[in-house]
Design the sequence.
C-alpha cells in the first residue's frame, strides 16, 4: 500500500495544522509518528480499523486528534496548540492491531510532511 502525507507547513506557537494521509488501499490499524533531526522516532497517535479506538503519546494528548475516513482510505491528524517542540517530519504508517492497546511498531510509511513551529 502506498501512503502519501500532506498538510504540513510553518506556523507560530499556538497555531493549528491538519495533516492528511492518502492510502492507495484499505489499511487496518494506522498511526502517525514524527522524527526531528538528531532525535529518535516518536509514535504520536494511532487508530483502530473502524476508528473507535484512538491512542496518543503523552506529549500530544489533548492537543492532537487522529481520525480516519475509510470511504476515502484517508487518515488525518489535527494538530492544535502547536509548540516549537512539535517541529518534526510527520509520517503516517501502518500499525499492528493489538486489540485495545498500541505498540508503535510502524510497518510501511510515506515520504512524510514537515511541520515547523516557531516561537
Sequence:
Amino acid at each position: 500500500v502506498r501512503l502519501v502525507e500532506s498538510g504540513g507547513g510553518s506556523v507560530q506557537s499556538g497555531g493549528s495544522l491538519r495533516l492528511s494521509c492518502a492510502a492507495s488501499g484499505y489499511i487496518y490499524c494506522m498511526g502517525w509518528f514524527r522524527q526531528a533531526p538528531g532525535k529518535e522516532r516518536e509514535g504520536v497517535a494511532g487508530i483502530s480499523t473502524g476508528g473507535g479506538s484512538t491512542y496518543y503519546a503523552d506529549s500530544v494528548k489533548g492537543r492532537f486528534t487522529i481520525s480516519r475516513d475509510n470511504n476515502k482510505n484517508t487518515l488525518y491528524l489535527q494538530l492544535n496548540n502547536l509548540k516549537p517542540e512539535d517541529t518534526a517530519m510527520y509520517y503516517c504508517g501502518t500499525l499492528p492491531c493489538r486489540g485495545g492497546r498500541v505498540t508503535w511498531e510502524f510497518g510501511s510509511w510515506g515520504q512524510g510532511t514537515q511541520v515547523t513551529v516557531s516561537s
